[in-house]
Records
---
Amino acid sequence: MTVQDTPGTHLVTNQPPPLTGYDVFGSDPALVEGVRRHDAAWAVDALTSLGERAGTDEAQEWGRLANDNPPKLRTLDRYGNRVDEVEFHPSWHRLMEVAVGAGLHASPWVDPRPGAHVARAAGFSVWSQVEGGHGCPISMTHAAVPALRADKALYDEWVPRLTSYVYDFGLRPPASKQGCLAGMGMTEKQGGSDVRTNTTVARPSGDHYLLTGHKWFTSAPMCDVFLVLAQAPEGLTCFVLPRVLPDGTRNPFRIQRLKDKLGNRSNASSEPEFLDTVAWRLGDEGRGVRTIIEMVMMTRLDCVIGSTALMRACVSQATHHARHRQAFGDYLVDKPLMRNVLADLALESEAATALMVRLAAAVDAEEAAFKRIALAVGKYWVSKRGPSVAAEALECLGGNGYVEDFPMARLYREAPLNSIWEGSGNVNALDVLRALGREPSAWEAFRAEVALARGADRRLDASYDALEQAVADPSDIEVRARRLVEQMALVLQGSLLVRFAPPEVADAFCASRLGGDWGTAFGTLPPSVDTRAIVERATPKVG
């Protein structure tokens, strides 16, 4: 039967077109404004180019194929020799080539001008909307650089290769590669986030150490070098562990298995075993956590960026669908209740974007005190909001959203990840309490930031006053930690939106998140909110 002979029952109507052929960066006013606001206007042309590429059919297909064809572990070659290699679909490599070529793994270190981290955050957010899994090695490579500063010789050896804009995949001696990638290995099966319980042992041997142990989660095992934690004679220590040694021999790095994850399917997460594996000490013995925390702080920021990107992708899919889909006599976007849902989702996305950009700006400005507390607050809250946004946005697409043929299913499975990586919700909430208790300058920096919006909105002022009282009350503070951090996040986001967002966005956020007129589900904004303006601002412009 030819296409022309297809029965009329197979005629497809009232289905929205795929969301392709648009500028992912330029269609996000909140992100564009944030980039310009925080000294990164110089990057707009490059971000526009990246955004246009992210919106192509080709890039979207790369993301689909990389997840439909997850990496495969090959422990032995055909002759029985141990190789411990992971094979990726070509689409993964195309995603990586663009990310590395755009400097998403290194640009602030290569060109540390004002706004460099903001520009990189915007680019990472834009390209992550194509596919989230490949961002893991990009993030870890970017974050390894500040940690390597603890040892000049190791820094000089590795950083020129880690900051190369050439994607050079394959296990070869580092000196023979045009570019390298870095990973990390901290957690072990018995402790998880409690890394001080690690049992991997590091034994001194000449100018290096020999490590023996088993890591529980080590993502992107095909990276060229890893920062790992192990127990040296003087306590938990950070080490630099290459996959291939300078003489070309492969370092013992036995990949026992790849994790079968809920989402993040394109990215290989492994359990490596070390058997007298060669590594070099980074920093002093016994100060491993303090050394590797430089890397963790940067990857925490990328968790905020990743969740922000995911929320923006969800909102884009939902608003695009509602703009084209008709039901009950009208387009969905013109239905007041649907528009309320979409506007509520858009508020969450815009608030996350404002906070993400502000955190990146704090890295640029070396605002250590503010970054110390606000990064933990942002990591907790933004990554927590991702799954809720994904679930509601999926529902906006109805049954299509629940089908793997559509991108919403992949976004939904990806959504919980950033709340787990680099410290779960409780870890970050307790980290905020530590900052409040031990570093008064962190709280003062937070207060100073929020005070910039003092007097602009009565609901924000009232929420800030309530927060001050909550922080000053030490009773049961650990039990109240999550509530306290949520208050801090909402007040901080509110202060940013009141200062920088359009009035309709700031008013809707304060009325709902801070004014008490907000339900437990999305779509409960008060009738006074200009939902049409908010949705129009958030809808991607195609063509």
Note: The two ends are 34 Å apart (CA to CA).
---
Amino acid sequence: MSAAAAPGRRDVVVIGSGHNSLVAACYLARAGLDVEVVETDRVLGGAVSTVQRWPGYQVDRGSSAHIMVRHTGIVEQLRLDECGLTYLDMDPWGFAPFGPPDAQQAITFHVDLERTCASIAAVCGQRDADAYRDFATDWGTRNEAVFAAFQDAPSAGRLGRHLWGAGRATDVGGLEMSRQFLQPADQLLDELFHDERLKTALSWLGAQSGPPGHQVATADLVGWNALMHTRPPGRPVGGSGALTRALAERLRRTGGTIRLGDGAAAITRRGDRVTGVLTESEQHVAARAVVAGCHVLTTLELLGDEALLARGRRAVRVGNGIGMALRLATTDLPRYPAAEADPAYDPWSAMQLLAASRTHLRAAHGEYVAGRPPTEPPVLLMSFSAMDPSIAPPGRHNLTAWAQWYPYELTTGEHWDDIGAREADRIIAAVDRVAPGFSSSIEHLHVQTPLDLERELGLRRGNIMHVEMGLDTMFAYRPLPELSGYRTPVRGLYLTGASTHPGGGVFGASGRTVARIVTVERRKWR
């Protein structure tokens, strides 16, 4: 316990053990504060966690590929390698195979830009390869500035300064720069490239944040992927949960504590000042400050402020789910004809981008908007047991198939408990179309529908990003303008997690930023 904390009272209680919460807790403990994390689940890590689903299989519950956190420096600053975290580089990081009649061809996205351009040239021609090189260089430079804006509390001034710097670096004027950022991703792709197969792969990759490429202000959801040519995505040895396990170990070594299976039942306050957390076992953990890493609406419910909660329920755009996941135990890897024909193709470390065309992407999203599961779902397949044999028994493989777009609330009159298996079969069939025979290799299957994601991980309405990732819900609008700076109207109550800037994904920036704010503001607690 730090000298500033009274007997029996913590400096900070952190609600939730997701990666942003644990990042915040680690930085706060490193600053000398007495920190306790309270978590409802008996499994550490929230959506960045791994469990033994079947004997010998270490299966992710949520995220699998770690992209943004590798660009933040958090892993290095907290010396998580000393706490058991080892990353394997995903190189190549993207593999886009084609169906008939082009099944012998694919595009491979390597960390090395020239190797990527060579792969594009072999399939799409030199013109598109040269255009991709220019795109990756230009948008990579821009996104170094955007990424800097993600590392601090959001404000129009900060964002403007970073984008102004990006414009200077790329010789693009302010109005033209803003136009390019505000355009749909598909418009950007149509301006730059000719081959529809390349445009499909990039559009599907960009859509992983949720919004489809035909919507306004999605251009940078494609553009920021250029950063993967400077630092590849990573796969933690032992599963995605190795990150949160390492964070928990760093917190323990720094003097913090974690309480599993006894999460927050209420946030307590005296007037406009937070006083701590009442846990589900009815223990009151008194604290000078509370950092809530759960969903913003869950935080407001725990707080019990009816006016603020009513505002949140009206205005926070949670959406209607994004997708669903299959966790697969198989006897073999998916066998793509392109990879079988040419050993130069190495898809197993990559995110495998299985989308037939942008027309199919738009059709899938249209069905989602109408409240129906997609007839032909686009799939992102990951086969990390090929890189890390520790997550599957010898001779077996552990794969994840993520598919979009799946509505949490259905207009068909059906219930997810009744149709989950049917929709899983459709996803497997989509893999079979580009990797014939894949379905016959499946021995075990765990289905996570949007409803299952809510039940298992507390992801409201199945939205893995907590809040929609549209233009009106990002930066100083996330989750609401009055809550966008990680602070709340209640003194000493702070927010972190996917509900806050910069949003969802395995990032950690929100946790580090709120820890910095709390550390600076602790003198006000008295």
Note: The radius of gyration is 23 Å.
